[in-house]
Design goal:
The chain contains 16 helices and 16 strands. The protein is of the alpha/beta class. Strand 12, helix 12 and strand 13 form a beta-alpha-beta unit. The chain binds adenosine-5'-triphosphate (ATP) and magnesium ion. Adenosine-5'-triphosphate binds next to helix 5, strand 13 and helix 14.
């Protein structure tokens, strides 16, 4: 049995052809496990599918698999999301499917908010069926109900290719040899800002501390045995040329941002691999070569780097077209700048040997800057001047101020059952969901994204 979205011309055809005759059977819901038109007070659900045959225990979340809302193909699904949120939160149900036949979306509800976790066009439903089954198939939901710590994997991607994509993919390294200046905070939130604007973003973590990997929600496990990053991370990309390509290693960020972003994770095992990779000259260009295969899949690639001058920093600077140097503009960070400059010089020499243009420095980015009024009035302008005058480096116009919301969004946790899990968010999602004082910080990242887009020619 196949599905052809062309056959759904109105709401009732979406209900019968897509949902009743195609999706529900494929997802493992036999006719005795779902009901159409179910009423709870003022709420009227189009479909309610159950994980067990005896519906509705005291806790509906433990027996209901899925709420399905069908709309006419002429309706824009965006307009129905708040209604679905209302249904899922007021009845405390986990999964909602929203479709008009031309598009299908799956939302997941927890802590009174809903997150888009899957999205595809009507035409793609058939191809994406294995993914859809893994999220809302009856058996898969049942399994997750038995181990409540298992959250569904997010596979949502923006589906509309924006027309502003004229040129090919641009790669930006975020680097400074000084630690703790905000490289990871800038990498992850700049990636989030660009993704919010509709750009297709890949974030690469090439630091053994794996902080960007953590920040994008990929370290939700509590015990080493559950570590699924060890065997699929950035090391696999750079340690061999013939296999382990980007599409095999990449993950989707988890509950990090709307829309989510693609991430190549890092792992503590980068430390073990470091000396082998350093000896092999070829390891320096493998990431660059492999990224060429995904040139049409992403608009912007952002690489978060370690605070050192090692093989991983080399790979990042050889691979990137552009460089941003976050700095708190304090004396130690400043004194690291000549070393960064020399490093860039060496890298550029190296780049010419394989016909690559020098890396383009977008500038030093003032980051973690105090919001104290006197500081901003008297000290900050002097600190900014020093970058151009003494260190002869360009300074970016945007400023990332020191905002507690940024560390809070990184350190957010969620309690599921008895266990507390990391639940980090981009500053945008944090501002939307949790803390509206994060808005100011989100705006600062939005301004940074605009500056970056202009400077790399995507605007
Ligand atoms: N603008 C900011 N406002 C408030 N806190 C910040 C800001 N930027 C970074 N931080 C906090 O400072 C610490 C270091 O930041 P971050 O990890 O981004 O720096 P880094 O340069 O990547 O560090 P490393 O060199 O170790 O990789 C983190 O706890 C982070 O939450
Ligand atoms: Mg970092």
């Amino acid at each position: 049995m196949t599905f052809n979205p062309e056959l759904c011309r109105n709401e009732s055809e979406v209900e019968s052809k897509l949902i009743v005759h195609y999706l529900l059977p494929k997802l493992g819901y036999s006719p005795d496990t779902w009901h159409q038109e179910v009423k709870f007070g003022k709420i009227r659900l189009d479909f309610l599918a159950f994980t067990q045959k005896l519906p509705f225990t005291a806790n509906p979340r433990s027996s209901v698999g899925l709420v399905i809302e069908a709309k006419s193909p002429r309706r824009n699904l965006d307009k129905h999301v708040s209604q679905l949120r209302n249904y899922l939160t007021s009845l405390n149900l986990a999964y909602g499917l929203l479709t008009n036949g031309k598009e299908l979306r799956i939302y997941y509800q927890f802590a009174d908010t809903i997150q888009l976790i899957f999205r595809c066009t009507g035409k793609d439903i058939e191809d994406r069926l294995p993914d859809i089954i893994k999220i809302i198939g009856r058996d898969f939901i049942k399994e997750r109900l038995q181990s409540p710590q298992l959250l569904p994997q997010v596979t949502a991607k923006p589906i509309v290719a924006k027309s502003h994509r004229m040129s090919s993919m641009k790669t930006i390294a975020i680097y400074h040899n000084k630690g703790g200046v905000g490289k990871t905070t800038v990498s992850t939130n700049l990636a989030a800002a660009l993704s919010k604007k509709g750009y297709r973003v890949l974030l690469i973590d090439i630091d053994a501390q794996a902080n960007s990997t953590f920040a994008t929600g990929l370290v939700k496990f509590q015990f080493e045995e559950e570590d699924d990053l060890r065997d699929r991370n950035i090391c696999d990309l750079i340690s061999t040329a013939e296999k382990n390509f980007v599409h095999e290693i990449v993950r989707t960020s988890q509950y990090f941002n709307n829309p989510e972003i693609d991430v190549i994770p890092a792992h503590i095992n980068l430390i073990d691999k470091q000396s082998d990779l350093t000896t092999a000259m070829a390891s320096r260009t493998r990431l660059l070569n492999k990224l060429k295969h995904v040139n049409n899949s992403y608009d912007v690639v952002i690489i978060d780097t370690p605070p050192s001058r090692d093989i991983y920093a080399e790979v990042a600077l050889i691979t990137a077209d552009y460089l941003i140097i976050p700095s708190d503009l304090k004396p130690f960070a400043n004194q690291g700048l000549p070393t960064v400059k020399n490093f860039i010089k060496d890298i550029n020499e190296n780049r010419t040997t394989f016909g690559r243009e020098p890396i383009e420095l977008l500038g030093v980015l003032a980051s973690k800057i105090s919001t104290n009024a006197r500081f901003i009035q008297y000290t900050f302008p002097k600190q900014r001047d020093v970058i151009g005058k003494r260190y002869e480096m360009p300074l970016m116009e945007s400023v990332i101020y020191d905002r507690t919301a940024l560390s809070e969004s990184f350190n957010k946790t969620i309690v599921v059952g008895e266990v507390e899990y990391p639940d980090p968010k981009s500053i945008f999602k944090y501002a939307d969901e949790v803390n509206s004082t994060a808005q100011t910080s989100a705006m600062e990242f939005e301004i940074l994204a605009e500056e970056v887009l202009t400077k790399i020619g995507l605007k």
